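Task: sequence design from structure.
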């Protein structure tokens, strides 16, 4: 698979990507656990069929110490025993926040209550922002058919942060 368009070679796309990445910096600097952020980003990317983002978030999570078992089970988190209740609430939130067209009400009250039980206001703000941001990133890379497989952990850190 070859990308339709090289976003990194276009000035407008590069400027936009840098601003998107800088918005992500706010999330990374929050108290939301990095492992939760990577799991949520990975799950949304799986749902959206974004190979580039699945590759990126799998590798970033692994580089941060996430286990292979947990990464392999993200797609089947409901049928797994390796996630905490807080992580399960965040994964449900990510799914419902990603599948807006499938559930016209968006995130259910039950899922919202679970998230409120496990996360404080700043972490919830980061979680809401993370779901919105990863869905935007997924759309960018899926539209241009950016293939997964070539990402190296931290490869854009110097460019964006």
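Answer:
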């Amino acid at each position: 698979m070859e990308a339709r368009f090289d976003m990194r070679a276009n000035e407008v796309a590069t400027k936009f990507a840098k601003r998107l990445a800088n918005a992500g910096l706010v999330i990374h600097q929050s108290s939301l656990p990095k492992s939760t952020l990577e799991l949520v980003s990975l799950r949304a990317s799986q749902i959206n069929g974004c190979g580039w983002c699945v590759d990126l978030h799998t590798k970033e999570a692994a580089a941060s110490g996430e286990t292979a078992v947990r990464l392999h089970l993200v797609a089947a988190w409901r049928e797994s025993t390796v996630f905490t209740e807080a992580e399960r609430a965040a994964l449900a939130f990510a799914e419902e926040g990603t599948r807006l067209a499938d559930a016209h009400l968006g995130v259910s009250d039950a899922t919202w209550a679970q998230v409120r039980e496990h996360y404080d206001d700043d972490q919830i703000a980061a979680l809401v922002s993370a779901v919105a941001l990863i869905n935007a990133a997924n759309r960018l890379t899926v539209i241009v058919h950016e293939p997964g497989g070539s990402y190296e952990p931290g490869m854009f850190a110097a460019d964006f942060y």
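The chain has a mean pLDDT of 94.
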